[in-house]
Amino acid sequence: MTQTRKLSAEEFDALFEPGMEDVTASGDALVDIWPYVDAIPATDLGDIVTHDVHYVFRSKSSGEDHVIVATCAENVELVIVVDRHQRSIVGHHLLNLAQLYGLSN
Known about the structure:
Blueprint: H1 9-15, E1 21-22, H2 34-39, H3 42-45, E2 50-58, E3 64-71, E4 76-83, E5 88-96, H4 97-101
Antiparallel strand pairs: 1-2, 2-3, 3-4, 4-5
């Protein structure tokens, strides 16, 4: 069974780097995220349903990709953090942009 790791807001923020590059169009995924996404416990997602990969952002110095998976909830994205050096998944974070930036749904 695939092990998952829910990243706290603090852990996720520590893995975020300003000026990350949008590499969505390159399509060079090192890790198949879908077995991981399927293994995320329902308690981590609530009633959120995941869809397709929306974006992939790459850090310029730390070697991580942030794979943004669209969800059924407006302004809520599932972010899968991939360590490009280890070719492994670091963890996941449910990013609620509405809450974070005061957006309305």
